[in-house]
Each structure stands twice: as structure tokens, then as C-alpha cells.
Design brief:
The protein is mainly α. About 75% of the residues lie in helices and about 0% in strands.
């Protein structure tokens, strides 16, 4: 918004015209931001879907406006026209900024928005540490399993070849067995905080040996300790390590005591129930396509009817009227009934007991290792500089004020300020004082 016509207005907060102008400017800026985000998000969503998934432009035109299908034959001219309209409407500077923002939107989201969101939602980040660790450590197996699941789903949905459908059923059974086995091992395997504790143990050894900062303590009792403010680039990192150990230990213990991890365990268990229901529905549907007489009352049944049968097998609800008729269908039906018992065992003996206790134990070991690192840093500072951590903080405040106060703010402490230096009187003030004292005599 142009403010030149409002230059005569007072900037007093009580001035109603100025408050109205600022409100309108803020609202217009917010609207422009929303429009820019929608445009950037829509463009990149379209690009990803077009390149990776399917031809979304053809699908939408065929569904919504088949008479406009001819536009796709002239898409280059349509894109040029849209760019021209945007250029004319935004101007030279606005168009360049918008194009730069839209072009770098994935990098902005990945390297700025997500880290900023993670910093603000630190309990969610701490809670997701075991999830991310498990995903990364088993990425290869997970990718292969879910690729097999996706291909089997596609085969069951679109194919009528009995050989392919039989292979899909076998693959789905293997997937289900591996998934349930991994659900059992999840509670008894080594978690993210246990692995982090091992890394912290190695880091503590590096601090205690002096390899972390590379500084040597004075060899004789009369030798003076080195100054931490000059020529020691690793001193801020030593202080940073000490304060981060306190902050992370406090945050992890808050999250552990809030029982948010229990919510994650319940969600993971519900996912196991949902994926089991989906897999056996696919198997029922595949058996029906191989042999329509495999089930009773399923002459015109679709996949969703078999999904209801699968859900009724896992739960006490027996709403579906479809029942297995062949031997293979009956075997698969009893396999799902067995899986329902296994899922109940997973809920009782892993989700509600073992997994919670393992997470609590790993957090306690992780917190104890953080405290040991903090003690090792304190001893290192005392050994090398003959100073306490608070004294080192005051020394670093002169050159690293943002670092010191930023860490204090993260711990909920007030900011520190350097004491005002006492200045010597100037020559004019000194001569005036001498003249006044002479007159007094």
C-alpha cells in the first residue's frame, strides 16, 4: 500500500486514521502472502503429481470440463499468457521476487519452514526421534516391503490373471508376517535414545581427554591459566555443549513425563490394525477374482464388501453377509482371526508394557549421560582455566553476547549485560576541576 497520501497523519497509537491505515496495510500484506503461498504450493504440487503420479491436468479436464480438453494442445501459449498477465500485474520488481520465491519454494520449505516449525514444536521433534531413527535404520527393508504391498494392491485391483493374483496373495501374506514380526521387535530393539547415549558416551570421553577443545592445562602450579577470551576458538563450543546438555536433558524429561509417547504407541497399534484389515481384504478380493465360488453371497461383491468382511473378522462386529466357501478362503479367514489375536497380544505385552518401559529406560540413560557430559565440561573448564562456568559465561559475554543470552533465554533465564565501564575524565574536565580547587583555596 502507498503511504505517501497518509504522511500528514500522526503516528500516535491513539490516532484512529493511522491505526486504520496500518490495519489495512497489514491485512493487504497478509492477503498477498496467502495468495503467494497458494500459488507456489499449487504449482509444485501439480509438478510432482504430473511427473511422479499421473497426468492430473488431463484427469481434471476430463472430469470437470471435457469441452476444454483442446487447451492441452496449446499449453505452451497458455503458460506464456499467464506469465505475461502476472508480469503486467506485479510489475518488474514484484514479478522477479515472486518468480524467485516460487522457483525456490521447495528449498524454502525444506531448509527454513520445517526447521523453524521443529524449533517451535520441540516436544514433537523429541517424540519423533524414535520414529525417524527406526525409519532411517530400516529404510531398505521398509521400502522393499511397501513396494511389494503397492504392487500387490495394484495387481489385485486391475488384473484378472490368476497367476498374478496368486503371487499377489502370497506376497501379501509375507508382508503381513514381516509387519507383525517387526511390531513385536519394535519394543525390544535398540531405540534412538539408546544409540544417542552411545554417541554421548564417546563425546564425553573426547571432552575428558581434551581432544574436543584441544587445550592443555598448565603443567606447573605457578603457571598462569590461559585466557578464554583470546585465541581459543573452541571455548564457545565448550560452553555451548555444556548449556545444550542442560537444555536437552530438561526438554527430554518433560516430554517423557507428558506421556505423549503413549499416544504414538496407540497410533502405531491402530495402524497395524488398519494395515491388517487392508491386506486381508485384498486377499479375499483376489481369491474371489480367481474363483468366484470361494465365498458365499459374493456374486456381485466389490473390494469394499470384502473390506467389510475383513473388518468384521478383526472386530466383534459381524455385519458382512459374505462367508468363505472354499478351503483356501477358509484358511485365509482363519489366518486373519489368528492375526487378530496376535494384534491383541501386541497391544497388551508390547504397547502397554514393554515399549513404554524401554522408552522410559532409554530416556533415563540418555539424561544420565547428558549430566555426565555437563560434569565433564565443568571439570574441563576448571582444569584449563581455573574458572567456574558462571565466570566463563561472564568472560564470553563480551564477544559472544548473542550466544550466551540466547542459551539463557532457551533455559528461561534473564539476559546478562556487561557492567558499565568506568571512564577517565577528559582533559577539559580535569583542568576545570583543578581550577575550581585552586579558587577554593
Amino acid at each position: 500500500m502507498e503511504f505517501s497520501r497518509y504522511q500528514g497523519l500522526s503516528r500516535d497509537k491513539g490516532d484512529e486514521p493511522y491505526v486504520f491505515v496500518m490495519f489495512m496495510a497489514t491485512r493487504d500484506s497478509r492477503v498477498r502472502w496467502i495468495v503467494r503461498e497458494c500459488i507456489a504450493g499449487t504449482i509444485w504440487t501439480f509438478i510432482v503429481l504430473k511427473l511422479v503420479v499421473f497426468d492430473i491436468d488431463i484427469y481434471l479436464l476430463d472430469r470437470l470440463a471435457p469441452q476444454l480438453r483442446w487447451i492441452l494442445d496449446f499449453k505452451v501459449f497458455v503458460i506464456i499468457a499467464l506469465i505475461g498477465v502476472a508480469w503486467a500485474a506485479l510489475g518488474q520488481t514484484g514479478f522477479q521476487k515472486t518468480m524467485l520465491y516460487v522457483g525456490t519454494y521447495p528449498a524454502i520449505v525444506l531448509f527454513w519452514r520445517l526447521p523453524k516449525l521443529a524449533f517451535r514444536r520441540w516436544p514433537l521433534v523429541i517424540l519423533s526421534a524414535p520414529i525417524v531413527y527406526r525409519l532411517v535404520s530400516t529404510l531398505r527393508t521398509t521400502f522393499l516391503l511397501y513396494t511389494a504391498l503397492a504392487l500387490s494392491t495394484l495387481c489385485v485391483m486391475v488384473s484378472s490373471n490368476k497367476t498374478l493374483l496368486g503371487l499377489a496373495v502370497i506376497t501379501l501374506n509375507v508382508f503381513m508376517a514381516v509387519h507383525l514380526l517387526r511390531s513385536f521387535r519394535k519394543a525390544y530393539g535398540q531405540g534412538a535414545f539408546a544409540r544417542l547415549s552411545l554417541l554421548l558416551f564417546k563425546l564425553r570421553g573426547s571432552v575428558e581427554k581434551g581432544t574436543f577443545d584441544g587445550l592443555q592445562p598448565p603443567r606447573s602450579e605457578g603457571a598462569s591459566s590461559p585466557s578464554p577470551s583470546t585465541g581459543q576458538p573452541m571455548v564457545p563450543f565448550l560452553y555451548l555443549l555444556r548449556r545444550i546438555a542442560d537444555i536437552v536433558d530438561e526438554k527430554v524429561r518433560i516430554v517423557a513425563s507428558s506421556r505423549k509417547y503413549d499416544f504414538y504407541l496407540v497410533i502405531a497399534w491402530l495402524y497395524t490394525v488398519a494395515i491388517t484389515c487392508w491386506v486381508f481384504a485384498l486377499e479375499y478380493f483376489a481369491l474371489h477374482k480367481i474363483d468366484p465360488s470361494s465365498f458365499k453371497s459374493a456374486e456381485e461383491a466389490t473390494f469394499w464388501a470384502f473390506l467389510g468382511l475383513s473388518l468384521g473378522t478383526l472386530t466383534p462386529a459381524r455385519v458382512s453377509g459374505i462367508t468363505p466357501a472354499s478351503t483356501i478362503a477358509t484358511v485365509v479367514y482363519y489366518l486373519e482371526a489368528t492375526c487378530s489375536i496376535v494384534i491383541l497380544v501386541i497391544l497388551v505385552f508390547t504397547v502397554l508394557t514393554a515399549a513404554r518401559e524401554a522408552f522410559k529406560h532409554d530416556v533415563e540413560v540418555f539424561g544420565a549421560e547428558l549430566k555426565l557430559i555437563a560434569d565433564a565440561v565443568d571439570r574441563r573448564i576448571s582444569q584449563v582455566y581455573s574458572m567456574t562456568l558462571s565466570e566463563l559465561e561472564i568472560v564470553l559475554l563480551k564477544d559472544q553476547e548473542q550466544l550466551v543470552n540466547g542459551l539463557r533465554k532457551a533455559r528461561g533465564l534473564p539476559a546478562l549485560t556487561l557492567p558499565a565501564s568506568r571512564t577517565l575524565p577528559s582533559s577539559t574536565e580535569a583542568s576545570t576541576d583543578q581550577k575550581g580547587s585552586a579558587d577554593a583555596n
